[in-house]
Amino acid sequence: MGDKIYVAYPHGNPTTVSVIHKDRPTMKDEVVFNPQNLTVLNTDFGVASGDGGESYLLCTLLRDDKSDPARVNSVPVSVAGDEPAKGPRILQNDWSLYSSFRYAGAPGGPMGTGFCTEGYIKDNHVRIQAEAGAGPFTMKLDLDGVPPFPLEGYSGLIYIVAASARYFVFGLPGGHSSLYVHDRKLNTWKNLKSASTVAYARRIFGSWLATIVEIWGSGQQVEQPGVENERNWETPLLPNVRGRYPSLSAESGTSIPGTLLLDNLEDGRRITLETGQEDSEILDVRGDGLVLYRVNDSIFAAPIESDRLGTPSLVVKDEDVPEVHWVFWSLSETSPSVVTP
Questions:
Q1: Which residue among 72, 212, 239, 340 sits deepest, i.e. has the most Cβ atoms within 10 Å of its Cβ?
Q2: pTM (2 decimals)?
């Protein structure tokens, strides 16, 4: 959000967030937001903007209900991106911040649905949903409305693909190809379709929606392209990429053909990039149209030229590049920086 990036760690059940300030990317700014190591709902992470454009990390913790041992309470927590002039940096139960909920989408690589915000529809509005213990716990504010036309195959769960100031996008699980896009500025809805039938493998950059094409399968294990180029060994810092991908497709037989899409939600342009490698993703689309994308252990840059990408140039190639899933441009630099979890 703005000039802040939030990295919550350790993986699985984070207790601490490292706040990266784009104008001071080397500054150490770490906040312990979960000192009791309560369960964190990874599907409820997002950011929000306050009244003055301030930035906040949003997440949900689960705490036992002291009045009813059979129940678990959901506790919304917000962490201010900057130390406030007065008052605490960490607040609990401030539901009002969710009225400006922002979500840029899920990272690429061998990631599954656990990194995508889940929601449901009630009273013709989308709300965040989390399930734990005795049943569902829902946020108290509506994120957005729903389309004025029927949803194809809605069965109670949606994936919130993106939520920016301009666009709200959600899709359905279970092999549906439709995405429902709300242009908040024009207050219009459209049904966006592509070859991809997995809703969560998408991210938003301004008006560009980036898709890693994944096709929900028949339950049979699928041989993916580019497997032979993926790292098949592991160290304390570098995971076995080739070994992690099958967990994505083992149950469903999902196919990842190495196709990346860019859909412009404002003017309808679609750009298709064939990488031929399952481990590929779009990392950033800059305001001037420069696209950074990763193919296995290499990152390339290419300009958008109307409805296609221009000639790419190699930015970096290294053994740890497969762990790069986020890129930002420092306000004091002209070259990109990367975030490696």
A1: 212
A2: 0.88
